[in-house]
Design goal:
heterotetramer, A: alpha/beta, Rossmann fold, 11 helices, 42% helix, B: alpha/beta, seven-stranded mixed beta sheet, 12 helices, 14 strands, 40% helix, globular, binds thiamine diphosphate, binds magnesium ion
Chain lengths: 337, 322, 337, 322
């Protein structure tokens, strides 16, 4: 697998763009594979993809520093996960129920992480990661490790309606923590359109009410995402407190692979946000000569091989054996007084 | 013609909307989309003002239902999964549940909880929360196990003046079929003898009724044991009389549930049986619940986490051999 | 007791001012009595007073129409309650534990109401009334009774940090319900100052994020409260959707009567919001010749008599008898199948 | 010198802050104000960075604690009243409780719940929520009944790698006094025989331990009955061995608790006793809980809502006369 080299400080310029682009292709090809596996009946449970949201997610993941920062990805953050250093095999194992890998088959699909390494393992309850990332940052402050570190999470437009989102963001603002929250406003929460979710003109209007910085960005515009999200992370890192970025875009797939998303009106699909951020990225990168067509082809080819390898490996691995499980929810052993 | 458990839930809501202008539905993705499980499919077309999509705000969904009920409506709110009702917990147990006692004015809301495990659903889309709600004074908790009960008990829930937690089991949605919606007219608060027997009683509810019947059939076939199966139907109120009558016949009881093992319905059942029917017992009352971990994602783990016909048979064999 | 005449439509002008003033005096004298009773050991449990917040609360309560509107008072809303028609005896009974009265001793102090008459009985969990009032209004809409009706509730600065506040307000905004939410920002939540509660400059900055109207007012300024809160109610009534009013003021007492509020810095007490809104009201009413000094004296005297009478009555009444209680939390009778 | 139960809680927090730089406190009004019950009085002066006032955001308070714990800290969060933890319910039962099972990484948070009833506190400042949390896999639930336990178990809770719900009883805060903080060193997970006896066992926890002892003394005085009182100390894990050993001596058990009667600790205790100790029983196991309504405000109602020495004696007389 092509690795994202471990940065010591936040990437910028061409490096950042290249890292983002690589993560986007990695996410897209990996997710395409997940989709095929699902359709072939090889995955039990839901499959949730980030198609169309890769630029936003990669912009965030590529701006973070693994080992120093905290990242709490949500359901459409394959690109950000990859950029932050999650190997494909974690994803393949979680979806295919391998007994190896971090979740050992106990949890699946997007409910995975490596909390030991700063990548949290989401629970389903939307909005609940915001306060948890704030807590990670508060801990770093108390430990004297905060300078230069940030914490980040993504939520959808729907998740902004949760009490957890509100309480967490407000709390982070009171503590002036370097928390970056990206709202990926893909205009729908499952089937529910924005006008049934909130009544403000733009979710970024919420920033002022928390006393934090807020930015809007076209989430299909690769370079714009890089700039706005990269800057938000940099500002948080330099001590300017919580940053809210609202990215407007469209999910180019169903809510999950079981869903055809037919409730999205054709006009919306054909509209400005219906374009594919990967097309935009390639166009922008080629135009600005950051990358060549040959490199693109090479990246795509190499990533396809990596995807294949990860899936093949996970498919061969043992699945969990209920008789081997210790069935323990406590880490403490209370049996020995 | 055959009708499924989820059809029954849909039909009940259609009937309620048609017959009672006080009824309305509120939940995420329930209008044009028809709900994550299609329990409200087509209803917004018939009742455009009374089937409303909610934001992702379970606490406020419950709060809104309480307010509407206080103004004379009969709201039904759909939680997308029972597990997400953890966000609505406060409004349900502290607001809805206490209101009648405090003010003399009941709060007739119905909260639909798509409950229980299915393969691959994992820790946050599989929970059985009936014991959590039943612990609190003032909430009725129903757990239909049949197509007819799914229909009749939802209608009855909405007619009740008290708040009702309606636990519908996702595993039964499409798997469980019946010829019609016609049931036996048992009211909420009354258990049903689903299968008669002489040697032991299994007291259970919701999807586990079917696993219990399977286990009973297997034991009958294998060794001639005749196992009685009692479907509690509602866990609060809990029909201990029917349970005791069964134990009086069999002398042995296994309380069976799919929820976590600490406390819960099975503990309540056993405790009441020994309090009032100690002299009836020929063997120690047993319990069988899920294991004491979150509900695992992997189908193999999941199948070993919840009780199965095999593990029920094992328990029953132990119970019978005492 | 001097009664607030049942209005058919929202009061305005001198009528409104007079109603407000009366309610403020009623609240103050009643609460002074509660304080003495507490100090004399005659009240078990907490006593929570609205001293210093009467103008805000009365402005709201006096703008509401009993029988048509919904009002969910919070802990410092004695004035609003009285203005909305709650008789003193309800308060006296709740605090003194009479078995008569709406709560029958089952709940006490501020946890009382007449939900049958549109005055909700608060639970302690802050923020939870917002969605409930929204639900009352949604019901009215479905019943065709919404035109001309509003629902209102008050919360403190601290309650704005609750998820319930956020979810409820957002939901009301989506449904464009005629909900008026008054934030009485008395600068402290129990002992916690604003800077540990939120980081925005002014809580009214939240309005835009919900897509609703927002107004600020000096909560110690009687006439300003009348105007701003009266207008907010009128706008909601005329169909302009949710209205948020943030009133700045100071609690002129402890959090409860057990608390001396010594954490409030002297400079704050001596500052602009430390003045007593009743003094301000009297000054403004006298200056604008809406009321005479004699009338003020008469009102105070008459109210004092009413307070005395209510307390005396409640004190003579029976307390609940556990052996007579039916100890039922269900209204349904499940004993008869 | 005498030290109260609330002193012990304060002292434990001071000790923890002093000895372990990973410990910090987070809660409403706990810094300069010292907490609604003064459990953190003076601590912010000594540890200015590690005693922090929280906004009124229980869900985020629990979330913040979880995050901090994942980064190596040992947060203690104070809920102003146990009743308000209903807002933090989701983060506790779905996030903290599941994390070790899901990821292998434990979440060492301690959630302090000022629990239980006091006269005049009413439905929302009196709740006992131990059964709600204990139902979920992955949370330890402790219920200290003595001054020494309040101290030692809080220290032990913070040292445990698993999330702990520490239920401290408000009624004991200032009423319960001891000569010192010195205890007997029993770990979490082990019950204590508070009073020995031969004729019946009362199994209980928290404030009810003292009511049980009073009832036992009364019965001894009145009629010579010798009642054994077992203090569970932690309701999850639950030390059924000590309970069974006691029942083996007495043959009779009353499970006593202050919480709502449906389910809960008493049901779990009785169910486990009959499962493993059926043959030891000379009488039906009994339960005594609060009544099945919200906790009433009025002191007279409140006193009749919870078990009292009188009602415990009544239950015991019935149990002894079987
Ligand atoms: C608290 C909560 N309620 C309901 C759900 C069920 N649910 C899962 S995803 C989803 C829609 C999320 O929408 P959004 O936040 O916009 O994210 P998107 O799927 O569009 O990326 C819902 C309702 C949940 N996960 N959590
Ligand atoms: C959800 C919740 N958490 C905690 C409390 C305990 N509590 C009662 S009043 C109060 C302070 C409220 O402050 P604010 O909202 O500013 O209102 P004020 O008392 O200043 O009028 C707190 C923390 C509560 N009632 N509800
Ligand atoms: Mg969305
Ligand atoms: Mg305040």
């Amino acid at each position: 697998m092509i690795h994202h080299s471990n940065q010591d400080s936040q990437r910028s310029g061409a490096d950042y763009y290249r890292a983002m682009y690589l993560a986007m292709i990695q996410a897209r090809l990996l997710e395409n594979k997940l989709s095929s596996l699902y359709k072939a009946g090889k995955i039990v449970g839901g499959v949730y993809l980030g198609k169309g949201q890769e630029a936003v997610s990669a912009a965030l993941g590529s701006a973070l520093i693994p080992g120093r920062d905290i990242f709490a990805p949500l359901i459409r953050d394959q690109a950000g996960r990859t950029a932050f250093g999650e190997p494909f095999i974690d994803c393949a194992r979680a979806y295919l129920g391998s007994a190896l890998g971090p979740m050992k088959g106990r949890d699946g699909n997007i409910h995975r992480g490596r909390p030991q390494e700063g990548m949290l393992a989401m629970i389903s309850h939307l909005g609940s990661a915001v306060a948890v990332v704030a807590g990670c940052l508060l801990a770093k402050r108390l430990q004297g490790k905060l300078p230069g570190a940030v914490g980040a999470t993504c939520v959808g437009d729907g998740a902004t309606s949760t009490g957890a989102f509100h309480e967490g963001l407000n709390m982070a603002a009171v503590e002036k923590l370097p928390l970056v929250v990206i709202v990926a406003n893909n205009q729908f929460a499952y089937s529910t359109p924005n006008n049934r979710q909130f009544a403000c003109e733009d979710l970024v209007d919420r920033a002022r009410g928390y006393g934090i910085a807020g930015y809007s960005v076209d989430g299909t515009d690769f370079l714009a995402c890089a700039t706005v999200i990269g800057n938000a992370v940099a500002r948080a890192r330099s001590g300017e407190g919580p940053q809210l970025v609202v990215a407007k875009l469209l999910r180019l797939t169903g809510h999950g692979e079981h869903d055809d998303g037919s409730y999205v009106p054709d006009a919306v699909k054909a509209g400005a946000y219906g374009r594919d951020c990967i097309d935009v990225a390639e166009k922008q990168l080629l135009e600005s000569k950051i990358i060549t067509a040959e490199e693109i082809a090479e990246i795509r080819e190499a990533v396809a091989v990596d995807v294949q390898a990860a899936v093949a490996q996970a498919q061969q691995e043992p699945t969990p054996d209920p008789f081997q499980e210790d069935w323990r929810a406590f880490s403490s052993d209370f049996s020995q007084p | 013609m055959s009708v499924t458990y989820i059809d029954a839930i849909r039909e009940a809501q259609e009937t309620l909307l048609r017959d009672d202008p006080r009824v309305f539905l509120y939940g995420q993705d329930i209008a044009a989309f028809g709900g994550a499980f299609k329990a409200t499919k087509g209803l917004v077309e018939q009742f455009p003002d009374r089937v409303l999509d909610a934001p992702i705000s379970e606490d406020a969904m419950a709060g809104l239902a309480i307010g509407a009920a206080l103004q004379g409506m009969r709201p039904i709110i759909e939680m997308q999964f029972a597990d997400f009702s953890s966000i609505a917990f406060n409004q349900i147990v502290n607001h809805a549940a206490t209101h009648f006692y405090r003010t003399g004015m009941p709060v007739p809301i119905t909260v639909r909880l798509p409950s229980g495990g299915t393969a691959g659903s994992g820790p946050f889309h599989s929970q059985s929360m009936e014991a959590i709600y039943a612990h609190y004074p003032g909430v009725v908790v129903v757990t239909p196990a049949t197509v007819a009960d799914a229909y009749a008990m939802l209608i009855e829930s909405v007619k009740l003046d008290d708040p009702v937690i309606y636990c519908e089991h996702k595993f039964l949605y499409r798997w469980l079929k019946a010829k019609s919606l016609q049931g036996d007219g048992l009211p909420i608060g009354r258990a049903r003898i689903t299968r008669t027997g002489r040697h032991a009683t299994v007291v259970t509810y919701s999807a586990m009724v079917h696993e219990a019947v399977r286990a009973a059939e297997r034991l009958q076939h294998e060794s001639g044991w005749e196992i009685e199966v009692v479907d509690l139907r509602s866990v609060k109120p809990l029909d201990i009389d029917t349970v005791l009558a069964s134990v009086a016949r069999t002398g042995r009881i296994l309380a069976l549930g799919e929820a976590f093992p600490w406390g819960g319905v099975t503990a309540e059942v056993v405790s009441r049986v020994v309090a009032d029917g100690f002299h009836l017992l020929e063997a120690p009352p047993m319990r069988l619940n899920a294991r004491d971990t979150p509900v695992p994602y992997h189908p193999k783990l999941w199948a070993a986490h919840r009780p199965t016909p095999e593990s029920i048979c094992d328990s029953l064999r132990k119970l019978l051999s005492y």
